[in-house]
Amino acid sequence: MATLEIDRDAAAKPSKLHHVDLKLEVVVIPVSDVDRAKAFYARLGWRLDADFASDDEWRVIQFTPPGSACSVIFGRNVTAAAPGSARGLYLIVSDLEAARKDLLDRGIAVSEPFHGADDVHAGPDEPYLFGSLRVTGADPKRGSYSSFAAFSDPDGNGWLFQEVTTRLPGRIDADDTTFASHTDLAAALRRASVAHGEHEKRTGGHDENWADWYADYIVREQAGQPLPT
To answer: What CATH superfamily is the domain 87-165?
Structure first.
C-alpha cells in the first residue's frame, strides 16, 4: 500500500527529464524460424536494415516499416519470449483501405476492416479490441483512431493497422507538422481538397487563396486543432 502511494505521488510530479527526448526506436518480436520471418517481413516491403550473426548461436535481423521511426528486430537468442506471443503491434496508417490493398497485392492475408463496439463486452474466446467486440466494417463515422485491420506473421505475432487522420490535441504541435511519406502527404492533400470543395460551396465562389486554405487545414488536422470551415 505504501508503494502504491509513493507511485501515485511520483506520477503526479512533472518529470525532471522533460527536456530529454526519449525516442522509441526498436521493438523485439519473438519468432521460431528466423529465415521464414525474414522472408515474410521482406515480402511486406519493409526495409531490411541489418542481418548480423556471430555464430550459430546468435543472429539478429532488423526491419523498418515504410515511414516509421521505429524498427523491429528478431532473430536467434534475441529474446526469451515465446514465438508468436507479441500482440497489439500497431501500424498507424492514413488510409486503411490503401494499407489493406497493399498487403493483399503482396499476397498477405489481412482481415476485413473492423471497429470496436464499446457498449458490448467480449467473452473470453471472442476476438476483441480493448475489451470490446470487433464489429465488421470501418467505423461508420470514420473517426480518427477508430478503424482497424489485423494481420499476423507466420509465428502468429499480431499486427494492427489503425487509421489516424486527425491527431488528438496535444499529440503534435502545429509548428512540428511533418509527414513520414509522400503517401501520407498525398492523403492529407486529398482530404483538404474535399473539405475545400465544401468550403467553396458554403461561400458561393472560387477561393483564390486555396493554397493557404489547404495549408491551414492540413496543419490544423495533424495538430488536432479545430478545422477551418
So the answer is: 2,3-Dihydroxybiphenyl 1,2-Dioxygenase, domain 1 (3.10.180.10)
Beta-bridge partner residues of 114: 136, 148
Q: Residues with Cβ < 8 Å from 129, sequence gap 6 or more?
A: 114, 116, 148
**Closest alpha carbon to 192 in 164, 166, 173:** 166
Instruction: Give the full edge-to-edge strand order of the sheet including 58-64.
Output: 26-28, 71-76, 58-64, 47-55
* Closest alpha carbon to 157 in 1, 7, 36: 36
pLDDT tens-digit profile, the chain (229 residues): 344 444 545 444 555 555 677 889 999 999 999 999 999 999 999 999 999 999 888 999 999 998 888 999 999 999 999 999 999 899 999 899 999 999 999 999 999 999 987 655 444 455 556 666 888 899 998 888 899 999 999 999 999 999 988 777 655 555 566 766 677 788 888 888 888 888 888 888 777 778 888 888 877 777 667 778 7
- Which is the CATH superfamily of the domain at 20-83? 2,3-Dihydroxybiphenyl 1,2-Dioxygenase, domain 1 (3.10.180.10)
In the DSSP assignment, the letter for residue 87 is -
